[in-house]
Design brief:
Oligomer: heterodimer
CATH class of the domain at 10-162 in chain B: Mainly Beta
Helix content of chain B: 25-40%
CATH topology of the domain at 10-162 in chain B: UDP N-Acetylglucosamine Acyltransferase, domain 1
Strand content of chain B: 15-25%
Distance between the termini of chain A: 39 Å
Low-confidence stretches of chain A: none
Order of helices and strands of chain B: EEEEEEEEEEEEEEEEHHHH
CATH architecture of the largest domain in chain A: 2-Layer Sandwich
Order of helices and strands of chain A: EHEEHEHHEEHEEHEHEEEEE
Low-confidence stretches of chain B: 1-7, 127-159, 220-224
Strand content of chain A: 25-35%
Largest interface: A-B, 24 and 15 residues
Radius of gyration of chain A: 25 Å
Chain lengths: 238, 224
Amino acid sequence: MSTSLGLIQTRSFPVIVRIADAMTKSAGVTLIGFEKISGGYCTAIVRGGIADVRIAIEEGIEVARQFNQEEISSLVIPRPLPNLEVVLPISSKLSQLAQSRGYSRLSNLAVGLLETRGFPAMVGAADTMLKTADVQLAAYETIGDGLCTVIIRGTVSNVAIAIDAGMYEAERIGELNAVAVIPRPLDELEQALPVASCFVAQPVTLPVAIPQAQGEEVRRSDTTVERIPVYLEPPETP
Amino acid sequence: MPLPTSTTLRSWPSQNGETRYYVSGEVQVEAGAGIGAGVLLRANPGCRIEIGRGVCIGMGSVLHACGGSLVVEAGATLGMGVLVIGQGTIGKNACIGSETTLLNCSVLSQAVIPPRSLVGDPTYSSGQEAEVGIASEAEPVSAVAPPEPSEETLPEPASPPDSPLAQVEKQTRRWQEAAEQTQENSRSPKTRKLNGIPGYSELDRLLGKIYPYRQILSSGGGQS
């Protein structure tokens, strides 16, 4: 089963996430993930049928133009060979890996992204956003070239107001680069986004000794039956 | 007589009680101003129009304040059918010829503008009134400079140069200019920068849908 491959690259993380959102909603493609090489270059990778991939990439280029991105590069490969998939991070193994990391407690919420050039502006903007509206700081992401993105989650109205406030704070402290609000992200986009480990609910394994009472009948000579409880320890948990 | 902000037009009788003019929004007309019939004074939300004493506005003129305050200072004369749009100040004793259009610009005191002229920023567009207004406000149009530029600093000819009234007026004018400049400095670079940020227009559209009265409220809060 070989499916087509689509790539699109811009120089901003919020913009590429917004593009990925538009692509996954425009056609039946699967978002494999984001490839962040340094220097601020981010690439969104989608797979699907050739028609779907072409539609998605066209839509992605259109969104990138709306976001005033000059340096867009895109690629559609109708039938990549298996050797390419084995070596490059373009196969769906990556998304399987992402899916196996556990359940995020911030699912089904709007996503807000705010990108600044420089770390202090990002921290200041994040602080203002948390104090402005009922939002959760999900993660942050650096893509090189001094660009770092803070990712918040919350309801649409909270996220929009928080980003609006954070924008002015970031501009006051340093340099604001880009903002994006995704009101309703699809599941695969959500899984491709980074989430801080404190929000990931892992299955808990604790060494708990559960006492199990097991009745064992012992027959005595005086024909009275007595129950002696015997406690068995469960096997050691790894 | 400051009036509450409203979008409906109300008509007001003029001096002689027969002619009528129309106001909408925050319009302040001082006593002694002569306003012709059918004049329309319209101030957008967050903006205000001030008509000084002794001002004469001709029949059928339209004054529309948007993006800031529109001040017509004492003794100015506007001819018939003059159209003034945007923000700015029409200086003391200025004379605007009939059927003239003033777009987002200030007129110096004692200036004379010939009839049927177009003064102001020709790149004026309704979508960018605030920015254009600030840009043109910074440097008053040279075409309307008075024949003797030194006259601008002189007080009103009616009052002697050293009278207390003239001193107070000069000081007030200076304060107004300083206040306008600080307002420009604090507002204009920020809005211009944020407009170019990728994703800002989309966020603005989203916020406009979620909070329909956001722009009006924020601009009103900023002005007052």
